[in-house]
């Protein structure tokens, strides 16, 4: 898991190093050297290249000045421009090859209007593009769009949410000798999935990873089918599917063991269906008929394993304290998977600019793991540990993909992962699998097979 730091945590990391006797000048030298190396890679060498360094008064400016010295020694023609003296436009076409944005760092507050840069001139940002909020990633003014950002010690939250990803370009993390053990946020990568999900042992059998799914309703069986197939393709050995009130002859996932549940008062029978299952998914396509909330709460209270609650299940939980009370019987065992609108209903307010802080607060208040879907998916547990997932893409912006995600998260929980890992790794697998599909026209029904393909390739199968 790659560590990610907030602005406050990064300040504490710097303070720890200084308290341990590391000289600030040494840290600046290391950072500036890393910037120079990044610039040389971006330019393909230094000799004869024309570089402008936009340098602020703080540490970012100091890093930029150190980089300028290294580049000059490599034969580059470097001009250091104090931010206060920067022109409105930096020309290209024989004028400049690279602009190093060392104006402001992660602690910037206010509004910054960067000089315009001519087309074809590359931009390298130091730590974070100037004018980007280090925590939220919000653009404050008119920052430069970087081709590369060289950040230090660890990723910053502002590089992974808001406007940060679009403005930072490719991000390179430079190790400058700081201890980032304070990080409580991690970015999920393929290696994390491989480490957490070893290949099945020879002795595996279907009940070891059995998953119960209570989903769908009359006319809404598609959501149930997608959820069940998402569970199967993410490794559930058996999926037991209950669809309240649905026609028993209605199409469902062929491999699922389907139980007919009554239209009303279905919780007791659903619990009996789920008795041997290791995890439960409830909500996709359940509808919002009177009585659904009461049955869902009884089901959640009665099941003693991990519970993934999605879609109409989130609606049935209610809002604020009401939702927290409904989740109290399974505190620490529930995973909620809201989009922004569902999040606002659950908590009373939308996530706002700092989606990480909002998700963390929601998880603590609800006593559940919260997976907030988005361009960067944020997963937090009640203790404040956060996982970020950037594997998703606009390909997933189509109906039904969330049903597949819920099934995949449930399957990983059934395979033995804790709720935080099941949610975070499930979101990563889901997004990574979508990348194997077509850039245009991907539909939710494509995803289950892509899940299986991606997971199989992970182990070299």
Care to give the gist of this entry?
The protein is an alpha/beta fold and 461 residues long. It has 15 helices and 22 strands.
Structure description:
The chain is α/β, with parallel strands linked by helices and 461 residues long. The protein folds into two domains: 182 residues, Rossmann fold (3-Layer(aba) Sandwich), CATH 3.40.50.10260; 269 residues, UDP-N-acetylmuramoyl-L-alanine:D-glutamate ligase. The protein has 15 helices and 22 strands. The strands form four sheets. A twelve-stranded mixed sheet has the order 11-1-13-22-21-20-19-18-17-14-15-16, sandwiched between helices. Helix 6 runs parallel beside helix 15. The radius of gyration is 25 Å and the shape is elongated. The mean pLDDT is 94.
In terms of topology, how is this protein built?
Blueprint: E1 2-5, H1 7-19, H2 24-43, E2 50-55, H3 59-73, E3 77-82, E4 89-90, E5 98-102, E6 112-113, E7 116-117, E8 122-126, E9 141-142, E10 148-152, E11 155-156, H4 164-168, E12 170-174, E13 185-187, H5 190-196, E14 210-214, H6 221-233, E15 238-244, E16 257-261, H7 267-273, E17 279-282, H8 292-302, E18 307-309, H9 312-317, H10 320-327, E19 334-336, H11 340-347, H12 355-366, E20 369-372, E21 377-380, E22 386-389, H13 401-414, H14 419-434, H15 447-458
Parallel strand pairs: 1-11, 2-3, 2-5, 4-7, 5-8, 6-9, 8-10, 10-12, 13-22, 14-15, 14-17, 15-16, 17-18, 18-19, 19-20
Antiparallel strand pairs: 1-13, 20-21, 21-22
Helix pairs in contact: 2-3, 5-14, 6-13, 6-15, 7-8, 13-14, 14-15
